[in-house]
UniProtKB/TrEMBL annotation:
<keyword id="KW-0808">Transferase</keyword>
<dbReference type="InterPro" id="IPR007788">
    <property type="entry name" value="QCT"/>
</dbReference>
<keyword id="KW-0732">Signal</keyword>
<dbReference type="InterPro" id="IPR011044">
    <property type="entry name" value="Quino_amine_DH_bsu"/>
</dbReference>
<dbReference type="InterPro" id="IPR015943">
    <property type="entry name" value="WD40/YVTN_repeat-like_dom_sf"/>
</dbReference>
<dbReference type="Pfam" id="PF05096">
    <property type="entry name" value="Glu_cyclase_2"/>
</dbReference>
<feature type="signal peptide">
    <location>
        <begin position="1"/>
        <end position="27"/>
    </location>
</feature>
<dbReference type="GO" id="GO:0016603">
    <property type="term" value="F:glutaminyl-peptide cyclotransferase activity"/>
</dbReference>
<protein>
    <submittedName>
        <fullName>Glutaminyl-peptide cyclotransferase</fullName>
    </submittedName>
</protein>
Length: 264
């Protein structure tokens, strides 16, 4: 082999190694990307009045309809609100003295969990009447529907996956930050484009979770929304509107904020 031929072979090998290294890096990036973490900031677009007597537990849009559930034993309600004014269009009390928690709409039905009463309530969305009650394990905090299954939280670090037909549990996953720290206090939930947004009780943080891995993919500090609200009135309520904005509120807050999440 000539010197020139040897140099040609070495150059070809070097190029091949570089290309393979680049391909491996791209593959690693592709795997890491879904779990990459982003810090988000909130941009307030509008303010909507909110009933200060509402101990908000769940907030969700179903098309143009805005639903809210409120808590406390003997005071819990299922409500439909006017999204422009915050006025209560209709409401109904929960059966008995149930302590109501989060809700999610599934077709013409609404599923709502209760705090420590051990049941989920299926409502007829048109008539606001209970259709049935089914038993649930552990505490009920938040729920959302991703189009295939219902995701629910129980105040721990776990998201539970349940069937929308009968609320039977099919599995669960622990939620962790990129450094491996578990995230407890998962509260009111909102399913958006394959991700789950959650209030982290009792903080002002909202996190976005990949339900397939349990990884927190983004977080936002919403403390600026308090604006003088008492400290005991924690953030609790995330509802995504059809235009991609969100309504955010808290327990007994005087305001619902229409916001946009942007990269920090």
């Amino acid at each position: 082999m000539s010197v020139m031929s040897g140099l040609h072979v070495l150059t070809s090998l070097s190029v091949t190694v570089v290309l393979l290294a680049a391909a491996c890096a791209d593959a690693r990036d592709a795997v890491a990307a879904p779990n990459a973490h982003s810090e988000l900031r909130i941009t307030v677009l509008d303010e909507v009045p909110h009933d200060t007597s509402a101990f908000t537990q769940g907030l969700e849009f179903d098309g143009a309809a805005l639903y809210e559930t409120t808590g406390l034993a003997g005071q819990s309600q299922l409500r439909q609100l006017d999204p422009a004014t915050g006025a209560v269009r209709r409401s109904t009390p929960l059966p008995g003295r149930y302590f109501g928690e989060g809700l999610t709409a599934v077709g013409d039905r609404i599923w709502q969990v209760t705090y420590r009463d051990g049941v989920a309530i299926e409502w007829d969305a048109k008539t606001f009447t209970p259709a049935r009650e089914v038993p649930i394990e552990g505490e009920g905090w938040g729920v959302c529907y991703d189009g295939g299954q219902i995701v629910r939280s129980d105040g721990t670090d776990r998201l539970r996956f349940v069937a929308p037909a009968d609320f039977t549990e099919a599995g669960s996953i622990a939620v962790t930050r990129p450094d491996g720290e578990v995230v407890t206090g998962l509260n009111e939930l909102e399913c958006v484009d394959g991700q789950v947004w959650a209030n982290v009780w009792p903080t002002d943080e909202i996190v976005r979770i990949d339900p397939g891995t349990g990884a927190v993919t983004a977080s936002a500090d919403c403390g600026a929304l308090r604006r003088g609200e008492p400290d005991v009135n924690v953030l609790n309520g995330i509802a995504r509107a059809g235009d991609g904005t969100y309504l955010i509120t808290g327990k007994n807050w005087s305001t619902m904020y229409r916001v946009r999440f942007d990269a920090a």
